[in-house]
Amino acid sequence: MKQRAGFGPRLVALVIDVFLLGAISVVFGLMAGSLSSVVAHRFFHMDATSTDPGTALLASGLMGIGIFLLVTALMATFLSLPYNLMEAFFGWTPGKLAMGLRVMNEDGSHPAIGQVFMRWLIKHNAILIALLTFVGLAPAAFVAPLLQALVFGGCFLALGASRQALHDQMTHTAVYEVAELKAHSEDNSVL
Q: Is 155 exposed, middle or buried (0-12, 13-18, 19+ CB in 10 A)?
């Protein structure tokens, strides 16, 4: 029988995804922060000959740190949507792929793209709420924290016997280990 992936492998996949997004964002933040410090020294003449050396280093350093934090946050924000859309269209993220996990139908067959997209939309409902708020449905912003709390709590349902989080149960999907699916399909072909 095909075994669904439990809470542990799914959590590790999430940690991998967060680490990858964070690492990419920090690299861009470091590059921008370093460049801004150099530009501050050159463009604003913050060097030892024009101002107090301590003040010049402090000003360019603070500018670099500020730009680093800003660019890191912006990169994490902008990269998270396309990064997470991989799961909506392909049924995996890089973390799930590294862990050998894939979103499938409850029975282990391939889901329809609309089904996986709906799963993603439920799981990441804050994005939908933000879009609704942006187009003028401001009251939608008040329910976002409640829906996110519901989804967060629903993730712990994967600890149960069905190994399905709330968003899996609502869309009749489950997360399987790819090796387990391949082994099961080979067993059926022998019979």
A: middle
Strand partners, 177: 101
Sequence-distant (≥ 6) Cβ neighbours of residue 93 within 8 angstroms: 13, 17, 83, 84, 86, 87
With CA atoms as reference, report the closest residue to 47 among 32, 37, 35, 62. Answer: 37
DSSP 8-state symbol, 108: S
Could you give the 3-state DSSP secondary structure of residue 45? coil
Which amino acid, one-letter code, is at 152? F
In degrees rounded to 5, what are phi and psi of residue 177?
A: -80, 130
43-101 tens-digit pLDDT: 666 554 555 666 666 666 777 888 889 999 889 888 887 887 888 888 889 999 999 99
Q: What is the pTM of this model?
A: 0.74
Helical segments of the chain, H only: 7-43, 53-90, 94-99, 113-123, 125-134, 140-155, 166-171, 178-190
The yes-or-no verdict on residue 189 having pLDDT over 60 is: no
The answer to whether the Cα torsion of 57, 63, 67, 68 is positive or negative is positive
Task: Return d(Cα 85, Cα 87) in angstroms, integer.
Answer: 5
Q: What is the pLDDT of residue 66?
A: 86
